[in-house]
Design a protein that fits this description.
Elements (H helix, E strand, L loop, with lengths): L1 H23 L5 E4 L2 E2 L7 E3 L2 E5 H8 L2 E5 L4 E6 L2 E6 L4 E4 L2 E4 L5 E3 L2 E5 H6 L4 E5 L4 E5 L5 H5 L2 E5 L4 E6 L5 E4 L1 H4 L6 E3 L5 E2 L3 E7 L4 E6 L20 E6 L7 E10 L4 E3 L10 E5 L4 E8 L6 E5 L12 E2 L17 E6 L2 E5 L8 E7 L7 E2 L18 E4 L5 E9 L2 E2 L6 E3 L1
Parallel strand pairs: 1-13
Antiparallel strand pairs: 1-2, 3-4, 4-11, 5-6, 6-7, 7-8, 8-9, 10-11, 12-13, 14-15, 14-17, 15-16, 16-20, 17-18, 19-20, 19-27, 21-22, 21-24, 22-23, 23-26, 24-25, 25-26, 28-29, 29-32, 30-31, 30-33, 33-34, 33-35
């Protein structure tokens, strides 16, 4: 009998050891929010069959604003129309003034507060699923709420101006207009929760002509935008802008796409000074464009299509104070295409080149022939301005005419575009 009990104890001990090892010495636990891995300051742990994660990491990712009361060891958090409170070691919690119960209460370990992942996710309306073969928790949130979209947009300060920016990756990439950082000495960035980043900022990619700059900061940014492609831009579709006009953090306006081409998006949602570099979102929460400019009468507003961001090479590592070195020249015209209006009249359309004072158009009757000034009948000179949806209208076009375009800034003419022809 004694021998049997000893054998049984050994079997139970062995089973518990193996079980314990499988849980705590196996693969680490991973968390994804909307299919994006969540970077955390400490490893998640399992307590009473519940995944517990560092509080600040998950609260930031879900867009919660929080307060900590050290005396009562209470956590107060919320967003939109949701508020809740929890206490270290207490299974009781309050959600929108109603008492509820936790399977596992919050606790402190390694000087970090851990909270139940499923609870803090589901009370906000998120769907949570456990993938056991991958030790993975998948969380899907309603990413289209205005508050969630605001968490993907920042305010940018320099000594010269104030603008806006769009977070485009989880590791601190921010897209903005190049003119926002032009000739700056420093950049400071304010997030939607009011925190101010004053650390190192690098200029890692840019396209000056298209007025795009990509910044890199030393901060995890789990709330970032997914970029829409050209096919997702729809005329008359609903849009939301989020930017910081007149230094007001993340102001929201609503409107529609009124027109667009491959170089520009025109919309009706109002933007103002300080909105440069802000976000134009579609109804699905995708980033359609970077808000940039308006007409003089402020009835139409423009954004650079966000898919241009994907075309920018991220192969630079420059201090932002070097940005001014790249705007002292004129850049070639881009995105040229033509539209036939009638038998002998053609519209020439192209992207607005940052800083260009005007444009010059030349024509030739052959590809390798002599290109002559194309005179603007409005001023009697080879001097043309950018416009949308049409920039330059040319009449009396020959059977097959070749053109080249250039941009002029401060009297300096850019390199000519590649020749294009009109039949």
């Amino acid at each position: 009998m004694k021998k049997f009990k000893n054998s049984l104890v050994f079997i139970i001990f062995t089973f518990l050891f193996i079980f314990h090892t499988n849980i705590f010495a196996g693969k680490p636990i991973y968390v994804e929010i909307n299919d994006v891995p969540l970077t955390m300051s400490d490893q998640p742990v399992i307590e009473n069959d519940r995944v517990m994660v560092p509080m600040r990491d998950i609260f930031t990712a879900l867009g919660y604003k929080m307060e900590w009361d050290n005396e009562s060891r209470m956590i107060f958090a919320g967003k939109d129309n949701l508020s809740f409170a929890m206490q270290i070691g207490n299974k009781e919690a309050v959600v929108n003034n109603k008492l509820t119960y936790l399977d596992t209460p919050p606790f402190i370990r390694n000087d970090k507060t851990f909270v139940p992942l499923r609870f803090v996710s589901t009370i906000s309306g998120a769907e949570v699923s456990w993938i056991p073969e991958n030790n993975l928790v998948k969380i899907h949130t309603n990413t289209n709420t205005v508050e969630n979209l605001k968490n993907k947009v920042v305010m940018i300060y320099t000594q010269n101006m104030q603008g806006s920016g769009c977070i485009i990756s989880e590791d601190g990439l921010i897209a903005t207009n190049y003119h926002v950082i032009d000739k700056c000495e420093y950049v400071k960035i304010k997030f939607n929760d009011g925190t101010l980043y004053t650390g190192e900022v690098k200029l890692v990619g840019f396209d000056v002509a298209k007025d795009i700059a990509i910044l890199k900061i030393n901060k995890n940014t789990p709330n970032y935008s997914k970029i829409a492609n050209y096919a997702e831009i729809k005329k008359d579709s609903d849009v939301i802008t989020i930017s910081s006009p007149n230094a007001k953090l993340n102001v929201v306006t609503y409107g529609k796409v009124t027109d667009f081409d491959k170089n520009n998006i025109c919309f009706s949602a109002k933007i103002e000074n300080g909105s440069s570099g802000g976000a134009l979102f579609d109804k699905n929460g995708k980033l359609l464009g970077i808000t940039t400019a308006s007409t003089k009468d402020e009835k139409s507003f423009f954004a650079i299509p966000a898919y241009f961001i994907n075309e920018v090479s991220l192969n630079k590592n420059l201090d932002v104070s070097k940005a001014g070195l790249y705007t002292n020249t004129s850049y070639p015209v881009y995105g040229i295409y033509t539209k036939q209006k009638n038998n002998n009249s053609v519209d020439i359309c192209f992207g607005r080149v940052l800083g260009a004072d005007y444009y010059k158009l030349y024509e030739s009757d052959s590809l390798d022939g002599v290109y002559k000034d194309c005179i603007n009948p409005g001023n009697g000179k080879n001097k043309w301005t950018w416009g949308f949806p049409e920039s330059i209208n040319v009449s009396n076009v020959g059977k097959r005419t070749y053109f080249v375009l250039s941009a002029v800034k401060n009297g300096v003419e850019s390199k000519w575009s590649e020749p294009f022809y009109i039949n």
